[in-house]
Amino acid sequence: MPTRKLWQVLTPLALLTTLPLHADEGQWLPHQLLELESQLKQRRIEIPAQQLADLTKPPMNAVVGLGYCTASFVSPQGLVVTNHHCAYGAIQYNSHGEHNYMEDGFLAKDQAHELSAGPQERLYITDKVEDVTTQVLEGSEQLESGYERYQLIERNRKAVIQGCEADPAYRCSVRDFHGGLKYYLLRQLVIRDVRLVYAPPESVGAYGGDIDNFEYPRHSGDFTFLRAYVAKDGSPAPYSEDNVPYQPAGYLNINAEGVRAGDGVLVAGYPGRTSRHKLTEELVFSADWLYPTQAARYQGRIDAIDALSATTPEVAVAYAATKASYANRMKKLNGLLDGFRKTDIPALKVSRDRAFDQYLQGKPEAQALSHLRQLVAESQSDYQSSFYLNNAQSGALLSAASSLYKWAKEQEKADAERDAGYQERDRKLFAARLDRLERRFDARMDQVLWQQDIDAYLAQNQRDPVLDAQLAKLDFDTLYVKTTLGDKDQRRAWMDKPAAEFEQSSDPLIQMAVALYPGNEARSKARKAHLGELSKARPQLMQAMLDWYQSQGRPVYPDANGTLRISIGHVDGYQAADALYKQPFTRLEGIREKHTGIEPFNAPAKVLAAIDEHRFGQYARPNLTAPQEQAWYCGFLPCAQADAQPFGSVPVNFLSSADTTGGNSGSPVMNGKGELVGLNFDSTYESITKDWYFNPAITRAVHVDIRYVLWMMSEVDNAQWLLEELTLVQ
Amino acid sequence: MPTRKLWQVLTPLALLTTLPLHADEGQWLPHQLLELESQLKQRRIEIPAQQLADLTKPPMNAVVGLGYCTASFVSPQGLVVTNHHCAYGAIQYNSHGEHNYMEDGFLAKDQAHELSAGPQERLYITDKVEDVTTQVLEGSEQLESGYERYQLIERNRKAVIQGCEADPAYRCSVRDFHGGLKYYLLRQLVIRDVRLVYAPPESVGAYGGDIDNFEYPRHSGDFTFLRAYVAKDGSPAPYSEDNVPYQPAGYLNINAEGVRAGDGVLVAGYPGRTSRHKLTEELVFSADWLYPTQAARYQGRIDAIDALSATTPEVAVAYAATKASYANRMKKLNGLLDGFRKTDIPALKVSRDRAFDQYLQGKPEAQALSHLRQLVAESQSDYQSSFYLNNAQSGALLSAASSLYKWAKEQEKADAERDAGYQERDRKLFAARLDRLERRFDARMDQVLWQQDIDAYLAQNQRDPVLDAQLAKLDFDTLYVKTTLGDKDQRRAWMDKPAAEFEQSSDPLIQMAVALYPGNEARSKARKAHLGELSKARPQLMQAMLDWYQSQGRPVYPDANGTLRISIGHVDGYQAADALYKQPFTRLEGIREKHTGIEPFNAPAKVLAAIDEHRFGQYARPNLTAPQEQAWYCGFLPCAQADAQPFGSVPVNFLSSADTTGGNSGSPVMNGKGELVGLNFDSTYESITKDWYFNPAITRAVHVDIRYVLWMMSEVDNAQWLLEELTLVQ
Questions:
Q1: What contacts A508, CB < 8 A, 6 or more positions away?
Q2: Each residue of A410-462: pLDDT tens digit?
Q3: Which of B9, B217, B583 comes nearest A589 by C-beta?
Q4: Are both B115 and B255 inside the same structural domain?
Q5: Is the ipTM of this complex over 0.85?
Q6: B88 in helix, strand or coil?
């Protein structure tokens, strides 16, 4: 590992603090807001904490999940607004034949003409959050074995979920908090009839595309309106012409005045996963080994795809989506590595660690910490060797063979005993994944990519003799000809065959999968054993840490885990690099500035015309300067800087310091009164490390300004009927 | 041509003005400063205009030329400071064997150890500027033919220069102003013994390399110290151990306090070429045809080099320099095209044109304008067809053959009658260019690049039957084998052969060159005829324009032409794009921030150590905020924005609105007292269009801050003896 130096370029002040919680840091459980009165006051949030904490009252009862994104109700008739990229499936589902709503956008001419978003589309409304720690951990205390503990907890979780889902209107899940210190049951009402109401063209909704992904200044109209429908009796039901709009318990008013620099904001939603409370050792492992190793592998794969694509057009087509997905991951990995290069986050954490170590001295939990450290180290070492072992099996058809054989083996168990992903409820997705190979596979490319992984495996010391033997037998010259798995129908047919048939097969890849199965299963079991032990050790430490923070009078938010959270922030620009300041608002003119006519910078003519003709409607603002008395809101930089932005235009996107992560896409951004002023849709490149460390100087979320949404509706798309359904306030 | 729309994103105010001169626009002849009292006062320039206008007084008598760059004296002992990239040759000349001063930097341990910069290095001190319009134009009025006029003016110029250079201590040149309205003789004392005193490593002097070229924020220590030496009697002489330091008539004091945002600055130097006074038609031709066409050609060539290099390492090596040069031109061309896309400069010029047309109405010069327009249109049309015709002859060995045959033909004339480039004084350079081919040529690559140009020629209508016939005969399969020109010695041997020998040669490329010669000569003659006519027509119009401006009480600077000029500006950041503000100063920490260890971001360990240890010496500044009363200096944006930059560090580079162009590299940047505060070395990407139009909102020059130079000397390189030679003031 490279020597680490304790220096930090952009925020020398951050060096001085050993506190884990900064100004706007925190993805809070709603009930925790009761402990945050002073922070709410500092950001001029006027809604009482009591109201914010209540999931049955607005604004929180207006916040809904999409499974992978967040949305919010904006009318009593079940109208919902979320990101364009969250409604991608709904738009694509309706784009076929003569209609290309992806390219042209879609606006229902009235409510009767709203389109089904497809049978898979769901809205989830959280109506109950219940502590089920006792049930989940029942019987686990007696168990010595990590593997048995893991299996028991899995069984208990499944039982709790099964009980909850007795009412088919609900989807339930059990989430662990603080690494297993607490388990909560989440009950969500499932809306099954979701319809597409209004979506801008992709050239607005995803203006800037992958190039602008994670970037700012940004000019994305990343919004779409959907509507929830239910049966006439009000119960959730699949799509039917007879269904009626769902009447939500609450919905958000929209403040057409929007926000100014320095204004406080609230962001509510379902952030997916963060690692803020992980050990510094876990951060260092990721920063120094995991991310660089993954980045090198993805870059190798991207280069190989580029090289073969240059001479082989079929490969270019088949691997376009794969390459785009690698490129997206590379951008995130590069953001992490650049971030760690610019700010030595482990060094920042070490000072907190020292204080905590001191607190633990002489306490029994000190032993828990060293035990956890040891477990983490073992787990990391296992991960490292598994990384190469698993990758050395990365050939797409071998992966299919291994999954199919495991599918057959799991079928031998009772459904509840099967591994996740191999249960009856997974059948459809499993089959779909097998089918998808058809369009995303080319034997020449697959061989090159697989060989890269084999070379990487052979170049290191952690070897498995069975795998070595199998790899030695590999004959690429005949492999892709001899296997039956290249054929879509034959591949699917294996799903219905018993394990014995695999074991007698002469297909070289099936043979290989069967041979590798015991080793893979053993590694999977070892992994579960580690997880079982960690689920016991980590909560002990987390409890000590919570006690420590409590002794300092500081509330602590749990790491994100896909549950409903609230973040508090303020509108602010940031110092992106030496001498480079990014201002908090972008304007319509910036769309014109970036427009080249070439995707993804191909703004629609109707948008350009409205900009060129200065048809700004009522949404232009002479300036977005915060009043002088708010100067102290502007964070590490003098407020003047954030304010000095010339305006006289319609804001398009804006930045805030709200604490978000993946899953917060589509989250409502609210002003201090809980009125909708924007939609969260991305973070800046410099913020990518925030999953590990919230650096208040540079961590910014990117939001669509509600004034841009309203401007599109009124000045560009003439969505008058829809505008009238909204409750606009000032 | 695409339809142009009148819109302008970043500077709507610019739309309202029809005036050619903005706040800090102008590359003024020193004597013009007498007309600029109010502008000097506005920028708080304290030196009297009278003094600035006097080439025999400081600061202007401290400004020297390097032929392609600018420098300035900074001690009474002939010490000179310029850019690292301007002293590149001097450093490279001394880097061989055990010394790699390019990589390590160089600091003479005392004056006696200064190194000769090589026999080619020169410093030019302008001591006389004289109006020679009458002599140059003598006899030209009677001539009807453009070609004869061109030839006569050339002869007259040469005669004036010859008279001036009778004293071998001087180099003389005759420059035309306002397209030939005036001709001035420049007499420059030539220092022939130049020595290398102090240069930082390339990793400081060119930190960021080509990647950061034209970019900002910038962190380049682009400075080097040289010293002028003369014979003991004070006369210029070639290098000799007996030579002594030259004692300049004046030198610059150095203000170690540097500048703050909003401060006025002066930049003096030898800007090369601008086109501000050209017709809007000439701008449109460049923006809509010339630049896109050149860009497409360079991109095609870069792509071809990349493609062949990927599989052929020898090609990668041979064409690395060629590709780098294309890439540099591409960056400039892209800057021009991006600039024209963002700001419709022709539309801005059209409003001025209208006012001028109105002024001309009924005046005899109205006809001069339409005549000029016609000449320009003809000249452009000729240029377009010549472009493809010339490129179709771009094979490197054919070019060599054509040059060699022309060399032989020109040898038949008296030396004074030969075309520029083919006179006796050009022999060395001509031979060197032939030799250089050896390392930069590969037949496979040459064929691909040439074929691209042939294809482009064949795809358009302007054809030459002789060229067509020659191309039809081209046989690439045997060409490179049959020709003698691929061999270095044989190629050079052709330089000494008479034309007749070419005409009897069986070398296929020599035959082709002989066949193409009459056509190429005819086109060259036509070009000269155009230039002759333009040199008559353009001055008539320029005179009318000068009268027009004078009637408005506005001084007018001539377009840059390599003569000594002064620009007035102020320190300022700029709005680089929507929501993206670039602050005026960069800091040491930015070097650390960009450092990856990989060239060109490989800062030396000694620099990084000084930064990490905060060894800022006396050069750190708590802030660089201009006092409140200077708020109105900060241009289009509120001053607060420029000021709000947090500091407490040593400034590295800074921005000013001074009007510069190529040739201004190394120019002294002076404060209002004429004290040295920085060295000019580049412009921002957004400024690239300034050769056509000075947009005060975004045009910024990039300077090395003198505090960074002093910091390197005192805190990093311990150049105490050299520091003591400087006159530091506060």
A1: A475, A478, A479, A482, A483
A2: 999 999 889 989 999 889 999 999 999 988 999 999 999 999 999 999 999 99
A3: B9
A4: yes
A5: yes
A6: helix
Give A619's pLDDT tier (boundaries 50, 70, 90): confident
Question: How confident is the prediction for chain A on average, in pLDDT?
Answer: 91
Give dist(CA B94, CA B120) in Å, integer: 13
B80 is written with which tokens? 């000179």
Among the listed residues B218, B252, B256, the one whose alpha carbon sits nearest the alpha carbon of residue B620? B256
pLDDT at B647: 65
In this complex, do A612 and B7 lie within 8 Å of one another by their Cβ atoms?
yes
Position B593 confidence tier, pLDDT thresholds 50, 70, 90: very high
And the tokens for A725?
A: 């359904």
Closest residue by Cα to residue B78 from B195, B240, B184, B235: B195
The domain of A477 spans 349-548
Could you tell me which residues of chain A have a Cβ less than 8 Å from any Cβ in chain B? 5, 7, 9-10, 216-217, 219, 341-342, 573, 575, 577-587, 589-590, 592-593, 596, 612, 636-638, 640-641, 643-646
Question: Distance between CA atoms of B296 and B294, rounded to whole angstroms?
Answer: 5
Mutation choice for A interface testing from B5, B344, B578 by most A CBs within 10 A? B578
- Name the β-bridge partners of B452: none
Place of tokens 């369009």: A439
pLDDT for A58 beyond 80: yes
What are the residues facing B678 on neighbouring strands?
B669, B705
Spatial distance between the Cα atoms of A515 and A499, rounded to a whole number of angstroms: 13
Question: Could you say which of B548, B581, B616 is where a domain stops?
Answer: B548
Instruction: Tell me the pairing of strands A668-670 and A264-269.
Output: antiparallel
Residue spans of beta strands (DSSP E) within A646-693: 651-656, 668-670, 676-683
- Complete DSSP assignment for B480-546: HHH-STTSHHHHHHGGGS-HHHHHT---HHHHHHHHHHHHHHHHHHHHHHHHHHHHHHHHHHHHHHH
**Residues of B acting as catalytic residues:** 85, 222, 665
In this structure, are A597 and A544 located in the same domain?
no
pLDDT band, residue A2 (cuts 50/70/90): very low
Q: Are residues B658 and B729 in the same domain?
A: yes
What pTM was computed for the model?
0.90
d(CA B711, CA B621): 12
The residue assigned the tokens 């249109």 is B377
Residues B528 and B569 occupy one common structural domain: no
Decide if A34 is inside a domain.
Answer: yes
Residues A639, A495 within the same domain = no
Q: Are B7 and A592 in contact (CB under 8 A)?
A: yes
Provide the CA B686 distance to its chain's centre, in angstroms: 17
Report in angstroms the alpha-carbon separations of B494 from A549, A655, B406, B408, B412: 87, 68, 11, 9, 15
| Integer Cα distance of A536 and A531 in angstroms | 9
How many C-beta neighbours within 10 Å does residue B90 have? 27
Q: How many CA atoms lie within 13 A of B579 on its CB side?
A: 31
Which residue, among B267, B242, B239, B253, has the nearest Cα to B123 in the 3D structure?
B239
| Of B179, B171, B181, nearest in space to B133 by CA | B181
Q: How far is CA B65 from the centre of its chain?
A: 12
By Cβ distance, the residue of A612, A643, A645 closest to B5 is A612
Both structure tokens of B218? 């910038």
Reported confidence tier of residue A623, pLDDT bands at 50, 70, 90: low
User: If you average pLDDT over residues A521-530, what whole number do you get?
Assistant: 96
pLDDT tens digit sequence for B205-225? 999 999 999 999 999 999 999
Q: How many domains does chain B have?
A: 2
Q: What are phi and psi of A456, to 5 degrees?
A: -65, -40
3-state secondary structure of B578: coil
What is the 8-class DSSP label of residue A97?
T
Which token pair is A299?
A: 């870059």
